[in-house]
Amino acid sequence: MYTKTMFGERACAGPRPVTSGRIGRRELLRAGLTGFTSLSLAGLYKLQAQAATKPKQSTAIILVWLRGGASHLETFDPKPEAPSEFCGPYDAIDTNVPGIRIGELLPRLSKIADKYALLRSVAHNAGGHPAGTLRVLGGDPAQADKPKPFYPDWMTVAHYLRSDPSRPLPNYVAVNPVDRYDSFVIAGPGYLGPAYEPFKVTGDPSDPKFAVPNVGLDDPEHVRRLLARTGLKDSFERLQRGLDQSSLMEAFDKYETQALSLLTGSQAGTAFDLTKEPDAVRDRYGRHQWGQQCLMARRLVEAGVEIVATEFDGPLCARPSNWDDHAVNNHVFQANKYRSPYFDQAVSALIEDIYQRHLDKRVLVIVTGEFGRTPRISYAASSGGGTASGAKGTKQPGRDHWPRANTMLFAGGGIRTGQVIGATDPRGEDPVSRRVTPHDFLATIYYHLGIDMRAFGLEVLNRRRVTLPAPADPIPELTRV
Question: In whole angstroms, how far apart are CA 219 and each of 1, 7, 61, 229?
Answer without folding.
Answer: 60, 54, 33, 16
